[in-house]
Write a structure and sequence with these properties.
heterodimer; A: Immunoglobulin-like; five-stranded antiparallel β-sheet; 7 helices; B: mainly alpha; AP_mu_sigma_su (chain A); Longin-like_dom_sf (chain A); Adaptor-related protein complex 3 mu 1 subunit-like protein (chain A); membrane (chain A)
Chain lengths: ~425, ~800
């Protein structure tokens, strides 16, 4: 089981240290740092490394390292998943996970760690249940400001009877405005050949909900076209069998933001991508020419937003001269890559084009780098998934409901 | 005593610091919010005053007052702010080991707290008390656990289960008592506690399967209701249990059947299906075995990757071979997750693919490497791709691998070439196209690529010594461009080894190499000498060859490197002796002088060809994760590829069917008559009395339609024999169910007209038929009392009927 947790900052100093099964010497961290420094980047160190006494499991997120020494056999994914869960919870409590946010709220962090794990076994990991026991730091502030002037502190102490019977939902939730929002977010992972052929393309979607409903609502969410959903995974609140038989989502939602489900989109094998990038690169003597154009297809007339193209060049490249007819570009001499900030592209605009040449200190600069493109399309789901209706049972109010869709690039890569 | 006092003082000081910090924090926060002292003065003054009071008490010389202060700190402050209380607990747990005596002082408070009204306080008291790692208190902890096991609150019982392993590690001699407690807890029907109970079981007495027998079916049913972490523990236990209690469903070994059956495993015509099939499917699963697999199946949809992998583990190790394919898609889905999770999943997929490559063959494209993948992920993906290569996908795969070869990252390019080599070795039919692909790489501008591909080609050609002449000729043509020593050395070796097939080319290669001999790298020089020796041994009468070889040997004789000089001397010895003998025989001068030396030399000569040209075995290409399949899927040992403490290999299947009667001794109470207090059924705690955990739910007549058990029962009749005792009830249930369905349909009809209007694309603030909702309200409220999560099992208590 999980013995301890160390949180290390960017310089790999310990900022949080928690032991669930007796003390573990801090030397394990030195050993770990030794291993990290042998890698070119901290991301290249395998997540599990073996030392004579402990197996060190770590995750690297938000430039913090969460390191867990484990002394005996355990389901490895349990440890990793739990570490990620800790980061998720911290993010939910503090908004962002960073060294400062952790240092500022270290007492809350320790309380959370205490509550989430008991003697190396995960205990309470549902955000709603945790919030019932450990109050959000900003809420404390609010309470104090509200109570100021009142004779006694009416701080909420959960008493036995209000502890919620479903772990993911707080009891006694009350809102004056009942509202629930669903965001359908789809991410396209694609690898495209230099000649435009799709090597592999896959779309993953999640439905992110933000629930601000009073009481214990029981919701049923219907889709117009559930057939596009393939291989789903659900928040524990969703009733599996109802989905299996009727393809509707039936659930008692947690309070606040949560990920309702994630799915893979069942697209026809080579459905066209919303964006095509055509790179043309000629390597010449001591340099080369390039021409990159972007074509928009298949977005139902919606504009592409936040377009950003990263085009890495050989390490020997010293200078780049280029022009673009949309947005602006920067050549970063450290990473040797061109960063083309496209901003918003309307489908009716003329084709965005970046062309230019580069010079290199090498006779034939190496080629074969991969271009990555980042973008998002608002109010558009590439799968065409649409919510049909949301029914609410068990509560009599009429909530405000909203659905938004967003398609964005996941790992969208173009080979040159 | 003084020592004790000083310790006490240190503890008190720390506690005081803590309290000060907290109080300061509150004041600071208040200031941040711009609260004027006038408005908040009253509240904060009292607060600080109180803190100061406690501080004074903590600083006091008298134990009594100190205890009082501590108690006030814990008890008095806690009544206002649970946070401070928790901080004190955290402090206690952290330092209890260093300050055992002091920690003991707090025991009394905890014991008192164990009787608190509030279940959270009871639970917390037990948690902290059991967490104090001082062996002396183990009997007290044991008593506390015993008390809490029968607590009305499921939360407290869960905490009690968590306390068991702590108590065990504190004092292993208590094992028997703890096992008794686990036995009691196993009877608990709350899905809230069950996961923790199994965790305790796995740690304290993992092999007491006799305790599991009566609860096996219950565990299977409750699995879906348990919390995520509990599910992992339960599946771990069920896997070990099943390996000792059921027969191997694949008596013919895992590779026996490769075809997938699209037919539904659980369909009613299962038996006929089985008999239709040939011998390999003649094995009939034990119904309990089947129940286990069926209960795990929905968990493949869990959001928790560890749960998904646990199900995969069950299916890989326990399921009939045709069933195992169900695990591949969800596993592949996990690849769209954090990179650490990707790594573990890929390592497991690679292991499974060594045994059953067909499982992942349809998902080849998901394993394509992205330029942003970390090194460890890239390597695993390459390995999986080569493992799952078949005749059908090899062209796609090779095209993809050749893309990788273009990568500017040299390490990656070389490992891609090695992957091509592994494909060719794995599939002799495809070796030709792999080789052609590799040959193209010889003209690459990248030295590393050329070198690696020659090395791989050499390995491949060694595997088929018969018809490699053409390719070797092509290689020799490339010699002028190839500069990497390893590659050149490999080519010379190939030419020498297969010189018999290259009568025209080989001497010319030697001639060219002799010209450039002095500029070559050491390993190349060695191979040139070897080449000369081999050619000479094949054709000892050829004068030109002889001279060429002599020339090379002479060059080598004065080389800087002693290895080369040694090699030259050795070969010269071998050859020169023959030389003398040949000269003599040619001149026919001293025919009689067959000295003992020349006898020896003739022996050597006869075997010269064999010495130099014996068949060399091709080095076998081991896949990097070879040996991983020794370990259980999902284990840490598998990822590390070596055994670690606490790892236990899976037990072998029993050869004879173990007794099943133990499981028949059912607690039918669970499956039929008693209300099960899962999350789902508790979800309406707001309506039911607070003590909902402990009372059977008061249910009315209608049944939940999408109850899990029910769902399965109605679909699979083979399950019925388990519940013989409850068949009557089942019938009743079904009637009830019909009623409900019809009612639901009515509802749907009413609503359908409204639904159509609901255009919910964007902001659906639309009217949700208030009249209708109001009309149905009463009905719905009633219905919803039980219409809980699909997971929840609201069961009717027969008495209430």
């Amino acid at each position: 089981m999980i013995d301890s947790l160390f949180v290390l900052n960017t310089t790999r100093k310990i900022i949080i240290e928690k032991h669930w099964r007796g003390l573990i010497n801090r030397q394990v961290v030195d050993y770990f740092n030794d291993q990290v420094s042998r890698q070119s980047s901290p991301e290249d160190l395998p997540p599990v490394i073996s030392t004579p006494k402990y197996q060190l499991v770590h995750i690297y997120r938000s430039s913090l390292t969460f390191l867990s020494p484990v002394s005996s056999e355990v389901d490895i994914l349990l440890v990793i998943e739990f570490l990620h869960r800790i980061v998720d919870i911290l993010a939910e409590y503090f908004g962002e996970v960073s060294e400062t946010s952790i240092r500022d709220n270290f007492d809350v962090v320790y309380q959370l760690l205490e509550e989430m794990m008991d003697y190396g076994y995960p205990l309470t990991t549902e955000p709603n249940a945790l919030k019932e026991m450990i109050v959000l730091p900003n809420i404390i502030n609010k309470v104090i400001s509200q109570v100021a002037g009142v004779t006694s502190v009416t701080h909420h102490i959960p008493n036995g009877s209000t502890i919620s019977s479903i772990p993911w939902r707080k009891s006694g939730v009350k809102y004056t405005n009942n509202e629930i929002y669903f965001d359908i977010i789809e991410e396209i992972d694609a690898i495209v050949d230099s000649n435009g052929a799709i090597v592999s393309s896959e779309t993953h979607g999640i439905i992110q909900a933000n629930c601000r409903l009073s009481g214990m609502p029981d919701l049923t969410l219907n889709f117009v076209n559930p057939r596009v959903l393939d291989d789903c995974s659900f928040h524990p609140c969703v009733r599996y069998n109802k989905f299996e038989t009727e393809r509707v989502l039936s659930f008692v939602p947690p309070d606040g933001p949560f990920k309702l489900m994630s799915y893979r989109v069942n697209l026809p094998h080579h459905q066209s991508l919303p964006v095509y990038v055509k790179p043309q690169i000629h390597i010449g003597n001591n340099g080369g020419k390039f021409d990159i154009s972007i074509n928009i297809r298949n977005t139902e007339g919606k504009p592409i937003e936040n377009g950003l193209l990263i085009f890495p060049l050989a390490k020997s490249v010293s200078n780049v001269n280029a022009t673009c007819n949309l947005g602006s570009y920067i050549f970063d001499p450290v990473t040797k890559s061109i960063r083309w900030d496209l901003g918003k592209i309307e489908p009716k605009d003329k084709v965005p084009l970046l062309s230019g040449n580069f010079s290199s200190s090498e006779q034939t600069p190496e080629s074969g780098h991969t271009i990555t493109l980042d973008f998002s399309i608002n109010m558009y789901a590439i799968s065409g998934l649409r919510v049909d209706s949301l029914k609410i049972f068990n509560e009599s109010y009429k909530p405000y409901k909203g659905v938004r869709s967003l398609t964005k690039a996941g790992k969208f890569q173009i080979r040159t | 005593m003084s020592d004790y006092l000083s310790k006490a003082a240190a503890f008190a000081q720390n506690a005081a610091k803590l309290s000060k910090k907290v109080s300061e924090g509150i004041v600071e926060n208040a200031r941040e919010f711009g609260l004027e002292a006038t408005s908040s003065g009253h509240y904060f003054d009292t607060s600080e005053e109180k803190m100061r009071d406690i501080k004074r008490q903590l600083d006091s010389r008298h134990d009594r007052e100190k205890m009082d202060g501590l108690k006030r700190l814990i008890a008095n402050v806690a009544s206002q702010n649970l946070e401070i209380r928790k901080l004190v607990y955290i402090y206690l747990l952290r330092y209890a080991e260093q300050e055992p005596d002091l920690a003991l002082l707090s025991i009394n408070t905890f014991q008192k707290d164990l009787t608190d009204q509030n279940q959270l306080i009871r639970a917390m008291a037990l948690r902290v008390m059991s967490g104090i790692r001082v062996p002396v208190i183990s009997p007290i902890v044991l008593l506390a656990i015993k008390k809490c096991v029968t607590d009305l609150s499921a939360y407290v019982r869960k905490i009690a289960a968590h306390a068991i392993p702590k108590c065990y590690s504190l004092d292993p001699t208590q094992k028997d008592a703890l096992v008794d407690i686990i036995t009691t807890l196993l009877k608990d029907n709350s899905s809230f506690t069950i996961g923790s109970v199994i965790m305790a079981f796995n740690e304290v007495c993992p092999h007491r399967f006799d305790l599991i027998h009566p609860h096996f079916r219950k565990l299977c049913r409750m699995l879906i209701d348990a919390d995520e972490w509990g599910q992992i523990a339960i599946m771990g236990l069920l896997l070990r249990y099943a390996r000792t209690q059921f027969l191997n469903p694949n008596p013919n070994g895992p590779r026996a059947s490769k075809k997938k059956k699209s037919k539904a495993f659980y369909s009613d015509d299962e038996n006929s299906d089985k008999t239709d099939d040939s011998l390999e499917n003649s094995f009939i699963l034990d119904p309990d075995h089947e129940l286990l697999l069926r209960s795990c199946l929905p968990l493949l949809q869990s959001r928790n990757s560890a749960v998904v992998l646990s199900v995969a583990k069950i299916f890989y190790h326990l399921a009939p071979i045709e069933e195992a394919y169900k695990l591949s898609k969800p596993l592949v889905r996990l690849l769209h997750s954090h990179r650490e999770i990707q790594y573990v999943v890929l390592a497991n997929i690679a292991t499974m693919a060594t045994q059953r490559p067909y499982l992942f063959e349809p998902h080849l494209q998901q394993f394509f490497v992205r330029s942003t993948d970390s090194v460890f992920i890239r390597n695993l993906k390459l390995e999986i791709m080569t493992l799952i290569a078949t005749e059908n996908n090899i062209t796609i795969l090779l095209r993809e691998l050749q893309e990788y070869v273009k990568s500017p990252n040299k390490e990656f390019a070389t490992s891609a070439i090695q992957a091509i080599g592994r494909c060719a070795i794995g599939m002799p039919d495809m070796a030709e196209s792999c080789l052609n692909g590799l040959m193209k790489l010889l003209w690459s501008k990248n030295d590393a690529v050329v070198a690696e591909s020659v090395v791989v080609i050499k390995r491949l050609l060694q595997l088929r010594p018969q018809d490699n002449a053409d390719l070797i000729i092509q290689l020799t043509k490339a010699l002028d461009q190839i500069t990497v020593p390893m590659a050149r050395a490999s080519i010379f070796w190939l030419v020498g080894q297969y010189a018999q097939n290259l009568e025209k080319i080989a001497p010319d290669v030697l001639r060219n190499s002799a010209k450039r001999f002095i500029n070559e790298d050491d390993i190349v020089k060695l191979q040139i000498i070897n080449l000369g020796a081999k050619l000479y041994s094949l054709n000892p009468t050829n004068q030109v060859l002889n001279l060429l070889f002599q020339y090379v040997l002479n060059l080598a004789r004065y080389d800087l490197n002693y290895d080369i000089r040694d090699r030259a001397r050795l070969l010269r010895g071998l050859i020169l002796i023959n030389e003398q003998k040949e000269i003599t025989s040619e001149n026919e001068e001293i025919e009689n002088a067959q000295s003992s030396d020349s006898v020896k030399s003739s022996v050597l000569k006869e075997n010269l060809k064999q010495i130099l040209l014996c068949e060399k075995e091709a080095p076998s290409e081991e896949s990097p994760s070879a040996g991983r399949d020794r370990f259980t899927i999902g284990s840490m040992a598998l990822v590390l590829n070596h055994s670690i403490p606490g790892y236990e290999p899976l037990p072998d299947w029993p050869t004879e069917k173990p007794d099943v009667s133990a499981r028949n001794n059912l607690d039918e109470t669970y499956s039929r008559s008693q209300a099960v207090k899962g999350f789902g059924s508790d979800s309406f705690g707001g309506y039911a009395p607070p003590s909902i955990y402990d009372k059977p739910l008061i249910t009315n007549k209608r049944k939940e339609v999408y109850d899990l058990d029910h769902f399965y029962d109605s679909e699979n009749s083979s399950d019925d024999n388990i519940h013989e005792t409850s068949e009557n009830e089942d019938e009743e249930d079904e009637e009830d169910e019909d009623e409900e369905i019809s009612e639901e349909e009515d509802d749907d009809e009413n609503e359908s007209s409204e639904e159509e209007e609901e255009s919910s694309e964007e902001e659906t603030s639309e009217e949700e038929t208030s009249e209708e909702e109001e009309g149905d309200d009463d009905d719905e409220q009633e219905l919803l009392l039980e219409e809980t999560r699909g997971k929840g099992k609201v069961r009717e208590a027969p008495k209430s009927r």
